Amino acid sequence: MRIPLSWLREYAPVPQEATAEQVLETMVSIGFEEEEVHRPTDEISGPVVVGQVLSREPEEHSNGKTINWCQVRVVPEGQEQTLTGKGIDPSGVQGIVCGAHNFEVGDKVVVTLPGAVLPGDFRITPRKTYGHTSAGMIASVRELGIGDDHDGILVLSRIGLDPELGTDALDLLGLYDEAAEINVTPDRGYGFSIRGVAREYCHAVNEPFHDFVLDAAERAPEATDDGGHPVELADQAPINGVSGCDRFVTRVVKGIDPSRPTPTWMASRLRLAGIRSLSLPVDISNYVMLEFGQPLHFYDRAKVDGAIVVRRAQAGESLTTLDDKQRTLDTEDLLITDASGPIGIAGVMGGASTEVGAETTDVLVEAARFDPITIARSARRHRLPSEASKRFERSVDPEIQAAAAQRAVELLVELAGGTAEPGAGDVRVERPRTEVVRLPADYVSERVGVDYTPERVEQLLTRIGCTVHRAAATGSTGNDDAAAWLVTPPSWRADLIAPEDLAEEVARLDGYDKIPSRLPIAPPGRGLTRRQIGRKRVLTSLAAAGLTEVLSYPFAAEEENTLWGTPSAEQAIAGVQLHNPISEAKGRLRVSVLPGLLDTLRRNHARGFRDLALFEAGLVFLPGEQLGSAHVPPGAVKLEQSVLDEINAGIPDQPLRVGIVLAGNDAAAAPGVSARAFDWQDALDDALLVGQALGVRLTVAQGKHQAFHPGRTAELTTPDGQHVGWAGELHPQVVQQLNLPERTCAAELDLDVVLAAQAEGVQAQSLSVQTAATQDVALLVDAELPAAALVDTLTEGAGDLLEEVRVFDVYEGDRIESGKKSVALAMRFRAPDRTLTADEASASRQAAVDLTAQRHGAVLRG
Prior knowledge:
Strand order of the largest sheet: 28-31-32-38-37-36-35
CATH architecture of the largest domain: 3-Layer(bba) Sandwich
Oligomer: single chain
Number of strands: 42
CATH class of the largest domain: Alpha Beta
CATH superfamily of the largest domain: Phenylalanyl-trna Synthetase, Chain B, domain 3
Shape: elongated
Distance between the termini: 88 Å
Radius of gyration: 40 Å
Number of domains: 6
Helix content: 25-40%
């Protein structure tokens, strides 16, 4: 919220000499966050004065352009110029070349004299152009930084001004004013108004606040049946048990002149507040909104067909809004309608059919209060954030509609020459009463840590507008005689609903600097859970192995989910469709972490990083039989358990996955070292490392996955046979289609499954001092038999003396019959209490070989 200081001074005791920085310092002391200072004179300075055109001589030049050679008086006739400097004529008459043609001799204009600086560091100096020395410039609103119009210069009489020559134009146009911008949090919507800010400033400086809204309310006429305009509140789809519109005030002003210029004081304040001046009626509407915090809407009454009806949209309805866009309406949208149909989206934007224009003479003023949830959803649905919706969705004071309408009517009468019709329309729906908050006497002091007296608590709560009564209550100390307060928040503070809110207000107004600083004592805890420890161990192990952790967005295209989600295309998972994706190309939630990882790899590879080893741990989203719920929960409502169960049933399963991608070389080439490219075995080793970090021995078998190379893919399972994931080299066609580096490798594991398989505790084995005995064995088996199955059988058959068995060679060739392969394995034996003899190791080896022959038909090769 930008706060022009001249505006704030009307309603709060801000010293004339106070700067925007000082105002911000005051607002920060009561809990507002400072943003920026807006000061026009930071960009414009020097002699900028009012001048009068004495002569204008058009001259056509060889480039086809016609310019005007002008003589402009910048001091009253008969007075000498008091300004001095290069290019400033002591007579007070400046020769100026001007390319605009929208002025006449005798017009009063804004003249920037030599030495002036305009926005954009545009410095005015005498310069020779078109055969003349131009000693200054006749300025347009764009050149002065106060508007976008650059079609012609600013003629002061056309904006209702007739100042004396030589008057400081910066002062005349309000450019010496400045604005302090504060950040208003969503729960303090009252801060989006001069009224709210002025009240808070008075709190900060301990001065009384006179509510000017009450004055306007007293001047407002009584509502009558025939006053204002006929209105019907027909919302048949209340949200949160509250009608979409609970108050609708109407007033009528006849005979306005919409062509009248907006007064300079109003235009400059709107500009400093961040709102562009458009036309007098629109500016009045915006001015009252900023001043009171109540958005208004003006209709051309002649274009309103019959009574206004406030209702929800019907299926298939559409509306052309003020931005000339045709919008398809949702049945949840709250509309302003007449006999012709929709004429506005309530609280968001009006319709073009009833817009106030240059031909408007009679204005229908609307000051209504709409449900915050309804307005917020419509604004987001139609992507129409506005100053009005920003205020409505943070809740507008339900008691100021008549006062805001009165203020608008008075300005239309005073500035636009209109005549107010007697009486007003005021249609209401009974609203839930403001909840009374019970505040125990010791509650605030206990929560804040400051010993506030009861008188101080009452004083501060009363200052913000609360009604405070004492009542008997039981204090937290168990004293039945302890006092409590029954606090009724003011109408403009919809955020005060609990004792915590009231305690915060007391602390805020008394001063945060009075709260003592004490370091809290951390309570004893159990530390990280087993799951958290396991996850941390996995990520640390992968990082220690040389991989780099990255984070990617959890969004994917449908084609990516189809490719990576399942081993075959027939089992494709489309994934959860996003209603409002940040990118149409990534319109679904991911079912695999690999698409985002591969995007990161491809992006880094394109930027010159050739050797890449990346990993990511993140959630994926797997929809079940039910996706979503027909119930859209409103805000601040406790739902029934059955509704919660249905909503929870529609939430997709979200397992934790870890993905790994490799491309380039494991080690760069160096003197005496050859570069070694990553291959499928590296991806498999990294995947096995995940299990090793958790003490889970993953089983490896030949696998098949549509995105992986058909002969270089491993499927990993837990010891009890649960599927964990895949590892290997990506399919060449996938690599080509995705523009990935050649022979990119990857792995993806379900970390939840591995975490669930980890043992309750891992017993560390002592290091043996006994000598190991190593024997090799070569077995001839079927080519389809996985080497891992052979390792498992040898381990089982060898018994306790076997310490390790590993495959060191696999051979398939001419010397072996078709359909067979030779698997060579190294077996290491060791006893914990003695040195093994060769016979003991051989016996254990033979038992293992016999079991492989029995189970797999293995034949020992000589």
